[in-house]
Description:
Blueprint: E1 7-11, H1 15-25, E2 31-35, H2 38-47, E3 52-56, H3 64-74, E4 79-84, H4 89-97, E5 103-106, H5 111-155, H6 170-176, E6 179-183, E7 186-190, E8 197-201, E9 204-208, E10 213-216, H7 220-226, E11 232-236, E12 239-242, E13 246-253, E14 256-261, E15 267-271, H8 272-284, E16 291-293
Parallel strand pairs: 1-2, 1-3, 3-4, 4-5, 13-16
Antiparallel strand pairs: 6-7, 8-9, 8-12, 9-10, 11-12, 13-14, 14-15
Amino acid sequence: MNEKIAAILLVDDEINILRALKRVLACEGYEIHCATKSDKAIKMIGSNRYDLIICDQKMPGLSGIDLLEYSSRVSPDTIRILITGYSDFKVMEDAINKCRIHYYFPKPWDNSILIEVIRKTLSDKQVKGKKDSILNNLLGYKSYIEGILNILDGSRNIFKEEESPVEKTEEEYDKEEILTLKKDDSILFLKPSEIYYLASSEGKVTLVTVNSQYYSWDSLKAWEEKLKNNGFFRCHRSYIVNVAKIKKITSWFKDTYNLEFHDIGDTIYSSKSYIKPLKKFIQNQSGRRPGFTD
């Protein structure tokens, strides 16, 4: 089986820098994409899956840190490398704390070191992806077997005398709303109302609550179906949001919007194509309504 070719996005407003980076990477066999403007890079990141992004810090419009912070939100597993011609402690601090960069290179950089870093990080990412894929398959087989066992277990009652239906109590209806999640060797129980949002990355879905995060190998599409009657909305290809938890929606950059929450400091993103249906969905809900600013 052929290995997937790694996709790399290069972002710099200086065309000579982009050409230099492309020359360095030309012999590595990567799929190279380039952007000279931050707004174009935002659109490319929002519509493509990149394995690695190399971005200049000082550009017109958004800074490199702002752009990489956006990337860290919509594609957390993308490797982020910041390059800059300025030696600024505040820039380094923000690069680490805000966008969680993997590497920081000053201009001029050493080509051999840059290539070595890119090779190693992409190799590590590929190995992690394979491990996650194997684990996903094993969990899938486990769910399949458990489903068969449940069917066989249920068939034992097929010849029992049919009983009259009993009306369910309010407590029993509440139990139907409980979600079960596996964490290590424990089974956890979670109500949909406790979830703020769900984020998908590399086939794994993260469920975020006020105090914790939980992980699931069910697809984001599967979770969208599970939660469709509980006030959740798909606001981005990588996010499902509990609209009752939204505090504020604000325009961030061009066609991108920030979604802020009550009680937690997280911010997630929504694009223009999702925002109008999201507002309409919220208006149709009977719960809390966030404020909107354009």
